[in-house]
């Protein structure tokens, strides 16, 4: 029970907290990975912690089907489909975007787990939000007509309830770091729809945990990332009736590593992924964790992360992203020389 809410508790927590020895030596920092990519359904990822709460709420409300939205290759959609499969619910994903012409990455996994994906094509007239809204209404009506009771989960599971998964993770991290004797710990996470960061931040502040939370944005945010955080926090505060204030200066959010767009192929990001793969045998993804790790490497090299600083990067998953066509094509060009026909 966290802030008065129950969850399903299906996760293999605590997830591992592993020191990256070779990269720590190389960068002169003390780097750990929180292995939330190794969570146990649907190939894992951060959204499962949120879904423990969201799916519980859905089931308590008598829902028979989870409906969510995202990009066509949404990790959150894939994991919503995974939890639905595990609990005998139906699920569907609604996205705006074109079919890439091949059933790969998350689209493939969605199908394997029996979760349909509805792709609404851009029309050059309506905004993405308008198209998404219309498509959600259409798909909802279609399934309600078949007798399903729909529970709608917003983008990334990032609403007030969704933050609780990472509120719990902050508590878990404080316990793990205390057991390991680590002090002055900075936790760094990716920021997309922001539920992960907000959960860690609110958990840390509300429970007075000895952690510092840094978020790295992976896309430009209209009005700025701190502004988005302040608005989100106000909603959370009101929802739970928290007597907690977080001033803007306490939102340590970095906008230097989004590389201009969401899910764009970026050479520096791929290089950071190769660096992690070749030093630690850990796979990052090009959309989220690759950008975050690019930021960590740069911050260590430029002294924004201090020599010897204890840094925990949350590995939020997203590995299927390496198999999306537009990323894979770029990697194929760079890695083809690793193939030798003899
Ligand atoms: C792999 C991965 N990492 C990080 C994030 C960002 O998490 P949040 O949306 O809670 O900011 C996402 C969101 O989709 C994700 O799929």
Mean pLDDT: 98
Segments where pLDDT lies below 50 for 5+ residues? Answer: none
Class derived from helix and strand content: alpha/beta
Helices, by number, come to 11
- Tell me, briefly, the overall form: globular
Short description:
This is Pyridoxal-phosphate dependent enzyme. With 342 residues, this protein is of the alpha/beta class. It has helices at residues 21-27, 47-60, 75-86, 105-112, 128-145, 164-180, 195-206, 225-240, 267-280, 289-301, 325-335, and strands at 17-19, 30-34, 65-70, 90-96, 117-120, 150-153, 185-191, 211-217, 252-254, 310-314.
Describe this structure in words.
This is Pyridoxal-phosphate dependent enzyme. Belongs to the ACC deaminase/D-cysteine desulfhydrase family. With 342 residues, the protein is an alpha/beta fold. It has 2 domains: 206 residues, Rossmann fold (3-Layer(aba) Sandwich), CATH 3.40.50.1100; 111 residues, Rossmann fold (3-Layer(aba) Sandwich). It is built from 11 helices and 10 strands. The strands form 2 sheets. A 6-stranded mixed β-sheet has the order 1-2-10-7-8-9, with helices on both faces. A 4-stranded parallel β-sheet has the order 5-4-3-6, sandwiched between helices. Helix 3 links the parallel strand 3 and strand 4. Helix 2 crosses helix 6, helix 3 runs parallel beside helix 4 and helix 6 packs across helix 7. The longest helix has 18 residues. The protein is globular, with a radius of gyration of 20 Å. The N and C termini lie far apart (59 Å). The model has no long low-confidence stretch (mean pLDDT 98). The protein binds pyridoxal-5'-phosphate. The site of pyridoxal-5'-phosphate has 19 residues, from helix 3, strand 7 and helix 7.
């Amino acid at each position: 029970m966290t802030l008065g809410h129950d969850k399903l508790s299906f996760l293999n927590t605590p997830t591992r907290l592993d020191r990256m020895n070779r990269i720590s030596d190389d960068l002169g920092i003390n780097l750990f990975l929180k292995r939330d990519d190794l969570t146990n359904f649907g190939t894992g990822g951060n959204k499962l912690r949120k879904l423990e709460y969201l799916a519980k709420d859905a089931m308590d409300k008598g829902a028979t089907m989870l409906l969510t939205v995202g990009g066509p290759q949404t990790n959150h959609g894939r994991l919503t489909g995974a939890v639905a499969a595990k609990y005998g619910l139906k699920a569907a994903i609604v996205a705006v975007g074109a079919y890439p012409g091949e059933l790969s990455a998350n689209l493939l996994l969605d199908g394997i787990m029996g979760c349909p994906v509805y792709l609404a094509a851009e029309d050059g007239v309506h905004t993405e939000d308008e198209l998404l809204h219309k498509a959600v209404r259409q798909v909802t009506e279609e399934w309600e007509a078949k007798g399903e009771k729909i529970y709608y989960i917003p983008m990334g599971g990032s609403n007030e309830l969704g933050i609780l998964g990472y509120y719990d993770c902050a508590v878990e991290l404080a316990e793990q770091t205390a057991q390991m004797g680590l002090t002055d710990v900075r936790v760094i996470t990716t920021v997309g729809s922001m539920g992960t960061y907000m959960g860690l931040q609110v958990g840390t502040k509300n429970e007075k945990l000895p952690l510092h939370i840094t978020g790295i944005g992976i896309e430009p945010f209209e009005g700025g990332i701190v502004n988005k955080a302040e608005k989100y926090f106000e909603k959370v505060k009101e929802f739970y009736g928290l007597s907690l204030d977080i001033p803007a200066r306490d939102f340590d959010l970095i906008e230097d590593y989004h590389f201009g767009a969401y899910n764009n192929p970026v050479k520096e990001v791929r290089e950071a992924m190769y660096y992690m793969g070749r030093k630690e045998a850990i796979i990052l993804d090009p959309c989220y964790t690759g950008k975050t790790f690019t930021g960590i490497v740069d911050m260590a090299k430029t002294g924004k992360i201090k020599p010897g600083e204890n840094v925990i990067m949350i590995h939020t998953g997203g590995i299927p992203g390496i198999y999306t066509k537009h990323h894979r094509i770029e990697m194929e060009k760079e890695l083809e020389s690793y193939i030798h026909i003899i």
